[in-house]
Amino acid sequence: MSQWDELFIGNSQSFLKAKNMIPRLSASKSTVLISGETGTGKELFARALHYSSERRGKPFVPVNCAALPDHLVENELFGHSKGAFTGALAEKHGLFHEADGGTLFLDEINSLNMVAQSKLLRVLQDQEFRPLGSTKSRAVDVKIVAATNTDLRYLVEAHQFREDLFYRLNVLSVVLPPLRDRREDISDLAKHFVDRSAEEFGKGAVRLSADAMMKLMNYAWPGNVRELQAVIHRAVAMAIGDVLEAADLDLPDHEPAGVAATVVSEGPTEMVIGQCGFQAMKAKMIDEFERTYLSKLLSVHQGNISQAARAARKERRAFQRLLHKHGLDRRIFSAA
Length: 336
Ligand SMILES: Nc1ncnc2c1ncn2[C@@H]1O[C@H](COP(=O)(O)OP(=O)(O)OP(=O)(O)O)[C@@H](O)[C@H]1O
Ligand SMILES: [Mg+2]
Known about the structure:
Blueprint: H1 2-7, H2 13-19, H3 22-27, E1 32-36, H4 42-51, E2 60-64, H5 73-78, E3 79-80, E4 92-93, H6 95-98, E5 103-107, H7 114-126, E6 128-129, E7 138-139, E8 143-148, H8 152-157, H9 163-169, E9 172-176, H10 186-200, E10 207-208, H11 210-217, H12 224-238, E11 243-244, H13 258-264, H14 268-272, H15 278-300, H16 305-312, H17 316-325
Parallel strand pairs: 1-8, 1-9, 2-5, 5-8, 10-11
Antiparallel strand pairs: 3-4, 6-7
Helix pairs in contact: 10-12, 15-16
């Protein structure tokens, strides 16, 4: 576990809560469902589960479910026997076979089509699969780790994801928090990426100026850790001296920092007032208000969307859209 400690940076409470689950999740044979916005570290987490488990000597096989064409899903996952269809000149092993004894990482599981969902459900229930055209089933010992950037419960409600498969996948689950909700991790992560990039580009020690760090802390990071990593990488590549200044960090202007201001400084309004025009400031304040209001409401109603929407006197769907806009996951607020 020690190498994962070093690779997986962050000391915020919400991040540590997830990270501290790694030993328990990796020791169990049960399926693990990792949820989190884009760039929050889902794949890194899945790898940590595999390489800290007893399966580490066997393959870790990642599959991007969104990139599997519908008509090839079964072929890719289960393989086929020789002569299974015109053109099947030889036997082909599927990904389940490849991952035997190890871990199959089903990334973007939310994108799996309905047919593939039912096939996957069968494998999970029976622990065996049948290659296309074969009459014999094969037993497999594969740990399934799935990742989603959409709350699968919403998809179940919208009849786009099988409920029975959801429960099969959700035996053990972990939610990786977005970066804007754990701003205290930004500084450690930024320093880590500066060091790594400097090493990669063969530069000596590079550091961030106080203004540069402030700029990072005040940004909303919709692309989460991946975006932070990319911004630093670019800045280090282009930097001339050994200090990165705020101007060296290429961040989009349109991303509101309003959310940040509530956390970073004692006086959110004071900090940004004077730096923004009226319209921009108003947008920031509204954004900030929405987020705080929604968070409080969800917390009062313990993540129950119907109740929270009723209390806000909003349509459930419109309410969900607002949650989505702010990247709020109701599960974080549930009592369990
Ligand atoms: N806590 C962390 N410490 C160090 N590096 C991290 C951390 N979290 C994520 N990263 C790095 O950020 C990048 C994005 O992480 P990863 O690919 O695991 O995210 P993801 O949730 O799978 O994203 P996506 O949904 O876009 O596929 C990777 O390079 C990863 O190594
Ligand atoms: Mg990923």
